[in-house]
Write a structure and sequence with these properties.
Length: 238
C-alpha cells in the first residue's frame, strides 16, 4: 500500500493555445492514483479555447492567466502560487501514467536525502506524423529515456529555494538549465526507470523543434558545454 498523501503535491500545467490536448492532460492528472491536492493551470496568453477548457474543471483547478511570456515564466508563476511541499509539472499536450505521482512520492519518502525524482519518458507521435514515427522507429528519440524535462519531475519545494526557478530568458532548454543547476548544487536524485510520462510529438511543440532545428540543438549543446566547463573549473581550483 502506498504511504503517500495527496495533500503534499502541487501540479503546474503551463498552456499556450493548447485547446486540442489540454483536456487529455488534465484528465490524466485527475486519474492519478495519488491525485495532487492542487492543480494550477497557467494560461500563457492563449488566444484559442484553452481558457474555456480549463475553467470547465471548476474548483478542481486554479486557473491563472498572463500575457504570453514563455513556458519558463508560466511555470515560475505556478511555483509562486503553489502551496504544497512537493512540486510537479505536466505540459498541456502530454500525459502521465496513472501511478506516476504515487511512485515518485513513495520514492522520495524512501530516500529522504534526495531532493528530486525523475521518471523515464516515452515519446509518441500524433497520427498526422505517422510518417515521422516510422522514420524514427529505431532512433533513440523513439525509445524510453531518462526524462530530464519538467513533466517527469517531482521535486521537494525547497529545491527551488536552493537552486532558483526557471530562467525566463530561455525559450528552449530552460528545464535542462535547471537540471544542470540542480546537479551543480549537489541535490540528490532518484530515477525511476519506467516510462511514466508520455510526450506527444505533434509538430508544433518545442520537443519536436529540438530534433528538427539546428539552432535548437545548438542551444541545448551550449547548456551541456557550459556545465562541463563549470565542472572542470571547479576541479582545477580544488
Amino acid at each position: 500500500m502506498s504511504q503517500s498523501s495527496g495533500t503534499e503535491i502541487s501540479c503546474i500545467v503551463p498552456v499556450y493555445n493548447g485547446e486540442r490536448y489540454l483536456a487529455e492532460a488534465l484528465d490524466s492528472i485527475m486519474r492519478q492514483t495519488l491525485r495532487p491536492a492542487q492543480v494550477i493551470v497557467v494560461d500563457d496568453g492563449s488566444t484559442d479555447g484553452s481558457a474555456d477548457i480549463a475553467r470547465g474543471y471548476g474548483d478542481r483547478i486554479t486557473y491563472l492567466q498572463q500575457p504570453n511570456a514563455g513556458p519558463a515564466s508560466a511555470r515560475n508563476r505556478g511555483i509562486r502560487h503553489a502551496t504544497c511541499d512537493y512540486i510537479s509539472f505536466l505540459d498541456a499536450d502530454d500525459l502521465w501514467h496513472e501511478d506516476k505521482l504515487t511512485r515518485q512520492l513513495d520514492a522520495l519518502h524512501a530516500n529522504p536525502d534526495a531532493g528530486i525524482c525523475v521518471t523515464y519518458l516515452q515519446n509518441f507521435w500524433v497520427e498526422e506524423l505517422a510518417h515521422e514515427r516510422e522514420r524514427m522507429r529505431d532512433h533513440a528519440f523513439a525509445k524510453p529515456m531518462p526524462g530530464y524535462v519538467c513533466q517527469c519531475l517531482l521535486a521537494r519545494r525547497e529545491v527551488f529555494e536552493t537552486v532558483g526557478s526557471f530562467d525566463e530568458g530561455k525559450r528552449i532548454g530552460e528545464d535542462t538549465d535547471w537540471y544542470v543547476r540542480v546537479a551543480r548544487a549537489g541535490v540528490g536524485k532518484v530515477v525511476l526507470d519506467d516510462a511514466l510520462v508520455f510526450r506527444r510529438i505533434h509538430g508544433q511543440n518545442i520537443s519536436y523543434e529540438v530534433y528538427q532545428s539546428t539552432k535548437a540543438r545548438d542551444d541545448v549543446l551550449d547548456l551541456v558545454m557550459s556545465s562541463l566547463r563549470h565542472k572542470r573549473s571547479q576541479q582545477h581550483s580544488s
